[in-house]
């Protein structure tokens, strides 16, 4: 077989070897880099008259590079972010979410902190992965949650702090503190320990939670403002406030006894509030009745004495006439309200039956109010 039929040397042309056809390529072949560069050079030579190493070609390349450099200054700020523009490392302005522009690097750079997002930090508890439940569970952190109260008791406090960057404090947030989350957590734990250390355990466990949360929030904000941190504390939430686990059963018994004591005290106070006013009302009623009887007796005595004095004056003027008038008035008063039968025991009364129920001879008159029943015969 002549060599010229194989072509490209003694083994033929292409990928063939002396034993026949060589290995066939599998899949798409990668582009040839040299071929791409050669094509790009040809196109540049066609675009740029006189070659790309001429003055016009270099100018066009520089213009393209400058345009790309200027376009690199466009950046987008997301909805939860704020853009902090730095000019040679110095903060010059803050931009809101949206498409913005800054002078390209290295003149100006931009930082994009999550300034509009509310972050959460938990103290006294942490979330851990729980494969058994296929989720996350809460685990207590005693070194953070156990605190000493003002009355020398120990209380277990778990709480959460909600914070965000101040609207005009992004620069302070970026350049004044190195570890924002660690700073907020340390300040929160310190403020809570200070407030708990000034309070007794009983109000903390019952009705002073809101006051404690407000006090801790104000103290944290004052401390962070002193640091110039540019952080705003939005809320402090106390999740759990209990005695330590070793004494919680005994403490609950004490709380139940105190609740019973308070209930009994309230019942006793209710009974006292009912009985005491009634007794006071009865006492006032008796005093008023006695005062009325006193005034009545005094008035009657004064009236009788005045009447007696007037009668005595008239008696001194005409004793006989006055004596007779008094006698008649007395007889009239005594006999005026009684039934009277007059029996003349003269000679004409010999035919009278020895037994005569005189009270039945006339109908009884009804007794008048204020008079005593009585009767007589003469």
Can you describe this structure?
This protein has 378 residues and is α+β, with helices and mostly antiparallel strands. Helix content is 45%, strand content 19%. The chain is built from nine helices and 13 strands. It has helices at 33-47, 55-71, 142-145, 170-175, 180-197, 201-205, 209-227, 248-317, 319-335; strands at 74-77, 83-87, 90-95, 98-101, 108-111, 119-123, 125-130, 135-140, 146-148, 154-165, 231-242, 339-341, 375-377. Strands 6, 9, 10 and 11 form a four-stranded antiparallel sheet that branches. A hairpin with a 2-residue loop joins strand 2 (83-87) and strand 3 (90-95). The longest helix is centred in the last third of the chain and has 70 residues, at 248-317. The protein is rod-shaped and about 185 Å long. Residues 1-27 and 374-378 have low confidence and may be disordered.
